[in-house]
Amino acid sequence: MGKEPTSMQKYLAELVGTFILVWIGPGAAVVAGLVGVKGLSDVLAIALAFGIAVAIAIYIVGKISGCHINPAVTIALAVRGRFPWKDVGPYIVFQCAGAVIASLLFVVCLGPKASSEFGLGATIVNSGAGVTIMMGMTGEIIGTFFLMLTIMGVAVDTRAPAGWAGWIIGMAVAGIIITLGPITGASINPARTFGPYIGNFFFGGPCPWDQFILVYCVGPIIGAVIAVFVYDAIANPKAVEETE
Question: What is the distance between the alpha carbons of residues 39 and 235, in angstroms, rounded to a whole number?
Answer without folding.
Answer: 38
